[in-house]
Design brief:
Pfam families: DMT_YdcZ (PF04657). Keywords: Membrane, Transmembrane, Transmembrane helix. This protein is mostly helical. Helices cover 78% and strands 0% of the residues. It contains four helices and no strands. Helix 1 crosses helix 3, helix 2 packs across helix 3 and helix 3 crosses helix 4. It starts with a helix and ends with a helix.
Length: 140
């Protein structure tokens, strides 16, 4: 089930980059980021109300963990900029390269109190195939 959810997340990311990039081309990158995040805020408020969920006690969360929100804003702005020059598939593909490198480092060292998941020879093969695919896609 987690694999299906991850695939669906990839579909949503591709849609998000395409839609956000188009809004960015019309409204500008900064204004579109505000629009996109306000709509996202409204969306999560509706979900919280519909599911009768309450915000949990947030006192034990280290301050640096909240930087995910800032990272989200930067991600929208940077993908909008990239989208206008690279299109959806290259923006996603090159972004995937950054995600792979970062996630390998996080897993290998267990950063952010996550379990250690060492980078091994089997993963090198899969990683290499993905990198080769990204490289082929970027050849003009």
């Amino acid at each position: 089930m987690n694999y299906i959810i991850s695939i669906f997340t990839g579909v949503l990311l591709a849609l998000m980059v395409s839609l956000n990039g188009t809004v960015g081309e019309v409204a500008g990158n900064y204004a579109s980021s505000v629009i996109i995040h306000v709509i996202g805020l409204i969306g999560i408020i509706i979900v919280l109300i519909a599911t009768k969920s309450k915000l949990q006690n947030l006192k034990g969360i280290p301050f640096y963990m909240y930087t995910g929100g800032l990272i989200g804003v930067l991600t929208v702005i940077f993908t909008n900029v990239s989208f206008s020059k690279l299109g959806a598939s290259l923006t996603i593909s090159v972004g995937l390269f950054g995600q792979l490198i970062t996630s390998i480092i996080i897993d290998h060292f267990g950063l952010f109190n996550l379990p250690v998941n060492k980078f091994n020879k089997k993963k090198i093969i899969g990683f290499s195939i993905i990198i080769l695919g990204i490289f082929v896609m970027t050849i003009q």
